[in-house]
Amino acid sequence: MATEYEKTSDGADNASAEKAQPAAYTVYDDAQSGSFDDVKVDVHTKIRDGLQRKMQQRHLQMIALAGTLGTGLFLGSGKAIQHAGPAGSLIAYCLIGSVVWGMIQSLAEMMCYAPISGGYIHYAERWLHPSAGFAVGWMQWYSGVISLPTEIVSASIIIGFWDIDPVINDIPRSHLIAYITVLAVVCCLINFFGVRWFGEAEFVFAIIKILLILGLIVAGLVVDLGGGPNHDRIGFRYWKNPGAFAPYPVDGSVGKFTGWFTTLLQAAFSFSGVESLAMACAEVQNPRHNVRKAARLLFYRILFFYVCGILIVGMLVPYNDPDLLNSTGDGAAASPFVIAFNRAGIKALPSIINAGVLSSAFSAADSGLYSTSRMLYGLALRGQAPRIFAKTLKNGLPVVALSFSTLFVLLSYMSLSDGAQTVLNWLSNLTSIATFICWCTICATFLRFKAGCEAHGISRKDSKYFYNRFQPLPAYWAIFWCVIVVLFNGYQVFIKGMWSTSDFFIAYINIPIVILLFVGHWVFTGRKRFPRASELDMYSNIPGPEVDVDPSPPTTKIGKFFRRVL
């Protein structure tokens, strides 16, 4: 038997039988009910949420700290320096970092209030508009499953760094097939073993990436100060010659501005996927406490890993470096760190960096499969995807959603055909701007969530939630820049002599796609209007204090160490 309580605006408990709204949470009597399953049944679809909280604190904290740290920084930073110069790249990364921070501050507050399946997709469906959740959910799922094969192929090519046939000067075809197969199988097995195995794998990958970027930053600083074998003290030499800002794709002051704007997209690629943290909040233990810690870690991650990383790269390599301009491929040779260390006379680092890049690419595929399966599961749980995808095993694994998402890994073999590879690259490029649309939707959803809390008399300052006193300014800041980038990301095609139909299509196709998804769902479901703040559902299926416990405190020394530092 459960006793229901309603949380009033002043925090008092009201046990009156006559309530204007459903209970804010439900406190259960274990002796009579024996479980907390009632809150797990969706009030609209009557489907039970079968996910289980088996992800530990250290898993979530390391995913938050280094989950998306990878090829975007190790390799993509070179393109950023080439297009915008050292100062332009630094400003671009700082700006996008502030956008990500604003988005995470918005997302974390909703995650702490409602740590439930579907993450930001369900938040949009609940607090913005049902059609918004449908549109963004399917767009993000499509983006995720298309990115899966590209990450598998990238990881396979990175392995080829150590397996180049001198006769053909490329990876043997049979070897590439083997690499793709092994990586795809391992990626799928990790996810099918369950969320705990996934958490452990991402924990290990995160440690590898953190150690690598720490080593690169320290080594880069040593080389910059003249500590390399050639004892050349670089300092900020390249900020003066050739300069702090690079012109791209045209010359002059206009080119320096457009070069900086182009780098905003490359910086966003480095941060993309950070929002997938919300997909884990339904499977992490003690979610409100752990989400609060993860959100606070993000600021230091942005400041140290990304800002310091791009600053060091900009000090080591000039934007007109011939090796940087001519670098191609997915391996370590394309990394500006390798270019700088080779010039300084340090020859052992390419293989080390390549190993780190390999772990990053594989981790991206691994976490991508996890996120897409939970997106599809969350859509099905709320009636926005076929009901079959909401089926789970006894251990909480969304087996049907995971199996269906896994099928798209087979597209990795398209890379073996030149024509099919072109199609795969084209499809994956369509997802490039989806990240900004997703971030914008998250922040817009938060604004409605905030209005709903105010209309229902819910205090957002409750100690068990995540609260940022600067809101809603961070949300508005993130929305502003997301809209700017979405609208103007294809500016190059409008420059005289640079028109490209395919580039225009890639830059803007996501806008009509998300509009068509929204309008189609809106028409099909009865053309529902946007709900007023007082009509927002702030109560149903919200986990109560029963989830705010740590069921498995660490007992080993290493476990206690990670508990203290994470």
Automatic annotation (TrEMBL):
<keyword id="KW-0813">Transport</keyword>
<feature type="transmembrane region" description="Helical">
    <location>
        <begin position="203"/>
        <end position="223"/>
    </location>
</feature>
<feature type="transmembrane region" description="Helical">
    <location>
        <begin position="393"/>
        <end position="414"/>
    </location>
</feature>
<feature type="transmembrane region" description="Helical">
    <location>
        <begin position="504"/>
        <end position="524"/>
    </location>
</feature>
<feature type="transmembrane region" description="Helical">
    <location>
        <begin position="298"/>
        <end position="319"/>
    </location>
</feature>
<feature type="transmembrane region" description="Helical">
    <location>
        <begin position="352"/>
        <end position="372"/>
    </location>
</feature>
<dbReference type="InterPro" id="IPR050524">
    <property type="entry name" value="APC_YAT"/>
</dbReference>
<protein>
    <submittedName>
        <fullName>Amino acid permease/ SLC12A domain-containing protein</fullName>
    </submittedName>
</protein>
<keyword id="KW-0029">Amino-acid transport</keyword>
<keyword id="KW-0472">Membrane</keyword>
<feature type="domain" description="Amino acid permease/ SLC12A">
    <location>
        <begin position="59"/>
        <end position="529"/>
    </location>
</feature>
<feature type="transmembrane region" description="Helical">
    <location>
        <begin position="426"/>
        <end position="449"/>
    </location>
</feature>
<comment type="similarity">
    <text>Belongs to the amino acid-polyamine-organocation (APC) superfamily. YAT (TC 2.A.3.10) family.</text>
</comment>
<feature type="transmembrane region" description="Helical">
    <location>
        <begin position="59"/>
        <end position="78"/>
    </location>
</feature>
<dbReference type="Pfam" id="PF00324">
    <property type="entry name" value="AA_permease"/>
</dbReference>
<dbReference type="InterPro" id="IPR004841">
    <property type="entry name" value="AA-permease/SLC12A_dom"/>
</dbReference>
<dbReference type="GO" id="GO:0016020">
    <property type="term" value="C:membrane"/>
</dbReference>
<dbReference type="GO" id="GO:0015171">
    <property type="term" value="F:amino acid transmembrane transporter activity"/>
</dbReference>
<keyword id="KW-0812">Transmembrane</keyword>
<dbReference type="InterPro" id="IPR004840">
    <property type="entry name" value="Amino_acid_permease_CS"/>
</dbReference>
<keyword id="KW-1133">Transmembrane helix</keyword>
<feature type="transmembrane region" description="Helical">
    <location>
        <begin position="176"/>
        <end position="197"/>
    </location>
</feature>
<feature type="transmembrane region" description="Helical">
    <location>
        <begin position="141"/>
        <end position="164"/>
    </location>
</feature>
<feature type="transmembrane region" description="Helical">
    <location>
        <begin position="470"/>
        <end position="492"/>
    </location>
</feature>
